[in-house]
Amino acid sequence: MPRLAIGPEFPRELSALAQPVRRDAVVALRRFLLNVAGAPHPERVRGARDPRVATLRLADGHRGVVVRRRDVYWLRTVLPDAAAWSYARRHRYSVNPVLGVVEEWDAEALERVEPALRRSARPPGLFAPVCDGDLLSLGLDVHALPLFRLITTEADVAALEPLLPPTQHLPLAVLARGGSLAEAWRELDSWRAADDPGPVDPDDLYAALLRTPDQAAFAADKVALDRVLGAPEWCTFLHPAQHRLAKAPRYDHPVLVVGGAGTGKTVVALHRAAYLAAHGSGPVLLVTFSQGLAEELSARLDTLVEDELVRKRIEVDNPERLALRIVADAEGRRPALVGPGARTLAQLTDEALRLMSLSTGDLLDDVEPGRKPYRHVVVDEAQDVSPAQWRLLRAVAPHAPDDLFVVGDPHQRVTDTRVSLGAVGIPAEQHTLRTSFRLPQELLSFVVRLRGGGLATGLARGATDMYGYRATHNGERPRVRAYESAEAELAGLRATVESWLAEGVPPGEIAVGARTTRLVRQARKALEGLDVRAATFRNLKGLEFERVALVGVAEGVVPESPPEDPGARARFLQRERSILFVACTRARAMLYISHYGRGSPFLPL
Q1: What span, in angstroms and rounded, lies between the C-alpha atoms of 292 and 264?
Q2: What is the mean pLDDT of the chain?
Q3: Which of 246, 250, 275, 562 could form a Cys-Cys staple with 569, CB 3.0–4.6 A?
Q4: b/e for 122-145, b at 16 or more Cβ within 10 A?
Q5: Residue 274, Cβ neighbours under 10 Å: how many?
Q6: What is the per-residue pLDDT for 364?
Q7: In this structure, are residues 421 and 428 in contact, taking their beta carbons and an 8 Å threshold?
Q8: Edge-to-edge, what's the strand order for the sheet holding 429-433?
Q9: Which pLDDT value is given to residue 194?
Q10: What kind and span of H or E run contains 316?
């Protein structure tokens, strides 16, 4: 029986096909898995740059492109016949000798580029100070070394990026900008899916695919195949760094994962919660910023976790509701939040912590972990958790391996909370995600300038910077529009959203944001009849959409008048800048910003 691995391009291409073609392709793949009569068979590709590449006829006029080694088949894409043959001839594949991950090369394009590089080469080359042995120690392909030696400028390295595997381009880019071998290795290490990949056999395609979770998901039977083809990409294909963090067999200490917008922190938190529910030793609590986000994460867990028993081991909540529930369980009724005898949420948090101390004993009690209500706690949007809430979260799980797993970004804080985990008794080992998969480079550059790119305190020891964040793709630059009046701005908003809908963007993939509830009401009125979400900037936190429109981003609104006290003023402006930053980074593809009068001083020039 064949061992079939699906690449991430295949479900995308399959979903774009007409329904009859898509149905036939899925039926053909099921037959291929079962190795029954009528199943497609691999056909050799004439002129292929890699003899392991073949095609499978999946439907009338459409073929899948596979890389095969013995009984292992890696399905890369499905295309019309001519395009499939061209794709198959164009690419070659390798296994990185250091990381053991699979690599795809645009071999045809590199053949065309080499003569131009040779003509422009001026000795010494850019990498002349680095010996071949050091380049090979970074996993660079021995067959590509002559090509790399022709490179003379950093611009040459940038031009080669689309043609090279990322694990080949990344170390070259670090060295080209003057980085050391150690720096290049640290960057390359982010593509390792496990701490120890084991011995690397360049002929073992199966092992290489297992080490490359962002490029391959194995489907052993019809059920698994349908799951891979139908599930959202974030459920199935994790970047190696995300995979390593989410599916580590064990952490002996609390873990803090810091990452910029779009780096996949929430995805890591969801997968870690699912992993602990399946492989841990007790109930899992997943905590996030608000009840709305908790409901969103709960729905995503329903998609991610197929086993109902495993799913029931995960509770999703926010810190306020957790405290409220603990107090309500102890007192036998829901505490009043308004009226006579009402307690604030801060008071309820303190009371919940006191009750936890009484019911479970000393907070350092590890002898009887079953006395705690949860065995594992996963925290999302951790930058906005208060010190009292941290103490409560620390109290609901025992001090034991895999107790706390925390993700957050101090630059996306929307409250005045600034606390490091160490200050509340949580000495965490820190990891950083620096690759944004959601934001195109143009939008990432814009929001870094908007945020100021400076240091942000909280969560980690010291301060967290934004240096080194990068995007995986390019896209459109954000659009900033100025109008003469509020009426004109709202008319422009409606015209923009209507144009997006006319282009085929689903209404659920469009969000409109404003700083105040008054402006949100005005936006909703202007968008009457258009089924798109409108919310305040804060209520967009944690969500993502294909396109986002932000209105009223004007002086005096974003921000409003700051307080006079210098310290309070600085904190206020930083919080307001962060709130706008959070709203801007909800967009995957396009960001539209509008104002009338003078624009917000936060907007980059």
Answers
A1: 19
A2: 93
A3: 562
A4: eeebbbeebeeeebebbbbbeebe
A5: 25
A6: 47
A7: yes
A8: 314-317, 284-287, 376-379, 404-408, 255-259, 429-433
A9: 85
A10: strand 314-317
